From TrEMBL:
GO molecular function: 5-amino-6-(5-phosphoribosylamino)uracil reductase activity
PANTHER family in the record: 2,5-DIAMINO-6-RIBOSYLAMINO-4(3H)-PYRIMIDINONE 5'-PHOSPHATE REDUCTASE (PTHR38011:SF7), DIHYDROFOLATE REDUCTASE FAMILY PROTEIN (AFU_ORTHOLOGUE AFUA_8G06820) (PTHR38011)
Organism: Okibacterium fritillariae
UniProt cross-references to Pfam families, sorted A to Z: RibD_C (PF01872)
Species classification: Bacteria, Bacillati, Actinomycetota, Actinomycetes, Micrococcales
InterPro entries reported in the protein's UniProt record: DHFR-like_dom_sf, RibDG_C, Riboflavin_Biosynth_HTPR
Protein name: Pyrimidine reductase, riboflavin biosynthesis
Pathway, per record: Cofactor biosynthesis; riboflavin biosynthesis
Length: 257
């Protein structure tokens, strides 16, 4: 153990994190309050109003493991980083499909904001012992009758968005106007694709697990041709080979000659 290692903060049992970009070679090992602070400093939002897209994938870009959920791509270090990202957010934003498929539970500090067209959250695992204000349901005002009927007596804060087909800009505006300016969007693929296409993303946090998964399930949804470049702001790697990318939208035109 080097002197630098002796002073390093700690992360998770048997798994260390090393900073590759920027090239500091700074490292933390194990799990203490100092390690969480070390990670928190690297994932801190750069503005009060902030939309971060948080994703995990296999090497070949699958958003889920063989069980059809992202859980089998994750590890303890990834979940610790996810907790830090959520701690910085006012709201964790997900699509209704992700709530049903991934078995979402309530975040520890941020509210859970769910986007739905129908109001159907059938099969959710949110429980019933949470403060109703901590579950926020966003829906198109044009579908209000159907949404409210499907939600029934589910404890939640209901926020109608204008029109029949609100997009990412309306989602962001509605959340900010109701006290949630800092948001982390966790998908699924369709919602993530909408935010990327709309240019509503301030940062992308991408964890990559060192595994191939077939058949691959898309990380980003959509069939139309589209490309948007991002710049690598930071890169961490853990001792198991998982990588943790922090990216921001590239302001340069890379298609220019």
């Amino acid at each position: 153990m080097t002197e630098a290692d002796a002073d390093a903060p700690v992360i998770a049992r048997g798994t260390g994190l090393t900073e590759i970009v920027p090239a500091t070679a700074s490292r933390c090992t194990g799990r203490t309050a100092d390690s969480k602070k070390w990670v928190s400093e690297r994932y801190r939002p750069q503005a009060d109003r902030w939309l971060a897209l948080n994703m995990i994938s296999s090497i070949n870009g699958s958003a889920t493991g063989p069980d059809g959920t992202s859980e089998t791509l994750s590890n303890r270090t990834d979940r610790m980083i996810l907790g830090v990202i959520r701690d910085h957010a006012d709201a964790v934003l997900v699509g209704a499909g992700s709530v049903r498929a991934e078995g979402y539970v309530m975040p520890k500090t941020a509210v859970l904001a769910v986007v739905t067209r129908s109001g159907s959250l059938a099969g959710h695992k949110l429980g019933d012992d949470y403060d109703a204000e901590r579950l926020v349901v966003l829906y198109p005002a044009g579908n209000e009758e159907q949404v409210l009927a499907n939600l029934g007596d589910l404890p939640c804060r209901r926020l109608a968005m204008p029109g029949n087909d609100p997009g990412p800009a309306e989602i962001v505006e509605t959340l900010a106007a109701n006290g949630y300016p800092s948001v982390v969007c966790e998908g699924g693929p369709s919602l993530a694709g909408q935010f990327i296409r709309a240019g509503q993303v301030d940062a992308v946090y991408l964890s990559v697990a060192p595994t191939f998964v077939l058949p691959a399930r898309p990380l980003i949804g959509g069939d139309d041709e589209f490309q948007r470049w991002f710049t690598l702001d930071g890169l961490l790697v853990d001792d198991d080979g998982n990588t943790y990318h922090r990216l921001r939208p590239d302001t340069q035109d890379r298609t220019a000659a």
